[in-house]
Request: fold
Amino acid sequence: MPKPKFNFVNLAELQNMDKDAVVDVVCVVKEIGETSEIVSKTTQKPFQKRDLSVVDNTGYSVKLTIWGKTAQSFEASPESIVAFKGLKVSDFGGRSLSLLSSGTMMVDPDMDEAHKLKGWYDAEGRGSAYSTHQGMATSMGAAGGANQAYKTIQQVKDENLGMNDTPDTFSTKATIVYIKQQGATYPACKSEGCNKKVIESPEGSGQWVCERCQITHDRPQHRYM
Reply:
């Protein structure tokens, strides 16, 4: 059968691409997310998705989403070279990619671009630090340290970070919109083994009462919440 013809762009070039542009990319699959199910806002029908983190020798890392049966049957292992044809460029979180229903992919293809990329990754890419199209660094420790990718709050929710048995580590840049007015501590009972909140006696007596211990203190022990 004839092989598909690719017109590859590198991940660094995505910042110059228009939203909804369709591109071909050959890349290293750095991380593979679990398959998840979401409901379409237009049809209200559920469908499957899987997020991949891909990199190339331009020093960029991009989120790439595959859908439906492709997401369910995806069997490539991390650090595989994959050639994607028919990726839509999105401006979600800076720049991200999504495989169209008409798109195709080839795992570890026998082509010059893939062999060159594999050689670069084995020689230096595995321990490199990658950037995203938000201009923020993705720290991939050369000694196998934790991934410190910059992510939006929406990405954290979509990827269910923090919901697994093992911890997820990431960095974010955000704006504070609300600050809790209460202090960081509360007046607590001073009795050993009791951290119950104490209540100040009425009429300004300066006495603090613990409802659990039924003991009155002249002053509380302030503890962090």
Notes: Confidence is low (pLDDT under 50) at residues 135-147. DSSP finds three helices and 13 strands in the chain. The domain at 11-141 is CATH 2.40.50.140 (OB fold (Dihydrolipoamide Acetyltransferase, E2P)).
